Automatic annotation (TrEMBL):
<keyword id="KW-0677">Repeat</keyword>
<dbReference type="InterPro" id="IPR000010">
    <property type="entry name" value="Cystatin_dom"/>
</dbReference>
<keyword id="KW-0325">Glycoprotein</keyword>
<dbReference type="InterPro" id="IPR046350">
    <property type="entry name" value="Cystatin_sf"/>
</dbReference>
<protein>
    <recommendedName>
        <fullName>Alpha-2-HS-glycoprotein</fullName>
    </recommendedName>
</protein>
<dbReference type="InterPro" id="IPR001363">
    <property type="entry name" value="Prot_inh_fetuin_CS"/>
</dbReference>
<dbReference type="InterPro" id="IPR025760">
    <property type="entry name" value="Cystatin_Fetuin_A"/>
</dbReference>
<feature type="domain" description="Cystatin fetuin-A-type">
    <location>
        <begin position="145"/>
        <end position="256"/>
    </location>
</feature>
<feature type="signal peptide">
    <location>
        <begin position="1"/>
        <end position="18"/>
    </location>
</feature>
<keyword id="KW-0964">Secreted</keyword>
<dbReference type="InterPro" id="IPR050735">
    <property type="entry name" value="Kininogen_Fetuin_HRG"/>
</dbReference>
<feature type="domain" description="Cystatin fetuin-A-type">
    <location>
        <begin position="17"/>
        <end position="134"/>
    </location>
</feature>
<dbReference type="Pfam" id="PF00031">
    <property type="entry name" value="Cystatin"/>
</dbReference>
<keyword id="KW-0732">Signal</keyword>
<keyword id="KW-1015">Disulfide bond</keyword>
């Protein structure tokens, strides 16, 4: 018996000595609802919206997974999977995200699915190392369960949709004493059964022409300092004609579409102003301070001006159109920077992921 106990002790001692000093777990898992996880997730959401030029801003709905890798020579890399939801605020709207309401299920909600790698440096600043997103509308079946009579999203290039947007722009210019505006983007559309009508949301831009004086729109040019407006319109079909109702909010002139600066700092969003010549929906709320500072040169390029084809929304993957050329390279660099000294077990989170749902599940 004594020999067996001695042998057991020697085996345990050998096992301890065989482990190299300084071995650390390959990664640790945080609670998906941990404040640190939520802070990094908000950095990711801010990064998404900073790269959007078309469609609508997105907000965080749920954190699906999180892993935290130690990185040499310092810092940690957060691997995140998050779900987002489309808001009412257009990508060009300077309204702070905190003041943007989520579009409900009854309006055919759109969900985003994103993977991120975010470096947290020792000084608390963040660098987005990798970003990949796509988005899709809720299924027609799910919408019908919630609201059987609610209209579904319509293709953005449908002839009725395009006609409704163009008719609404014509109505704006006919009623305006200010600048002539041009259609930039049809952002969202739905066919309403009763009364038979087409509902559209779209973006316009001011030109150097005065609306009441325009005889040839081809001679009008967009302003050097871009001024965009977001509009909502309904075109109702009637016997012998059609009625168009439209309201718009014009934003303050801006030198360029908001984008991260070369050093990664976010520019202060402009405060929206309302053009008195156009009926206003609402003015933007004052800007709020960023939750975290993002540093580092962006890895992606601006979204190209692509045709809508038969899509009913602008997919988030368009915001990261330049990502395909750097995904593999950034992935290899990511692996080389991690500190993985052994096959030690992951440190489990206090509660399993995914985290809480902030709005609703799509």
């Amino acid at each position: 018996m004594k020999s067996f106990i001695l042998l057991l002790c020697l085996a345990q001692l050998w096992g301890c000595r065989s482990a190299p000093p300084g071995v650390i777990p390959a990664f640790r898992e945080l609670n998906c609802d941990d404040p640190e996880t939520e802070q990094v997730a908000q950095v990711a959401v801010d990064y998404i919206n900073a790269h959007l030029q078309r469609g609508y801003k997105h907000t965080l709905n749920q954190i699906d997974k999180v892993k935290v890798w130690p990185r040499r020579p310092s810092g940690e890399v957060f691997e995140l999977e998050i779900d987002t939801l489309e808001t009412y605020c257009h990508a060009l709207d300077p309204t702070p995200l905190a003041n943007c309401s989520v579009r409900p299920l009854t309006e055919h909600a759109v969900e985003g699915d994103c993977d991120f790698r975010v470096l947290k440096q020792e000084d608390g600043q963040f660098v987005v190392l990798f970003a990949k997103c796509d988005s899709s509308p809720d299924s027609a079946e799910d919408v019908r369960k919630v609201c059987p009579d609610c209209p579904l999203l319509a293709p953005l290039n449908d002839t009725k949709v395009v006609h409704a947007a163009e008719a609404a722009v014509s109505a704006i210019n006919a009623q305006s004493n200010g600048a002539y505006v041009q259609l930039v983007e049809v952002s969202r559309a739905q066919f309403v059964p009763l009364p038979a009508s087409t509902y559209v949301e779209f973006v316009v831009a001011a030109t150097d022409c005065v609306a009441k004086d325009v005889t040839d729109p081809a001679t009008c040019n967009l302003l050097a300092e871009k001024q965009y407006g977001f509009c909502k319109a309904s075109l109702t079909e009637k016997v012998g004609g059609e009625d168009v109702s439209v309201t718009c909010t014009m934003f303050k002139k801006q030198p360029a579409v908001p984008q991260p600066q070369p050093d990664g700092a976010h520019p202060s969003p402009p405060i929206a102003s309302v053009d008195p010549a156009v009926p206003a929906l609402a003015a933007a709320a004052p800007a709020d301070p960023p939750a975290a500072i993002i540093v580092g040169e962006p890895l992606v390029v601006a979204a190209p001006q692509v045709p809508a084809l038969n899509r009913a929304h602008y997919d988030l993957r368009q915001a990261f159109s330049g990502m395909a050329s750097v995904e593999s390279g950034s992935g290899e660099a990511f692996k080389k920077q991690l500190v993985v000294l052994g096959p030690g077990p992951a440190i489990p989170s206090a509660r399993p992921c995914p985290g809480r749902i902030r709005h609703f599940k799509v």
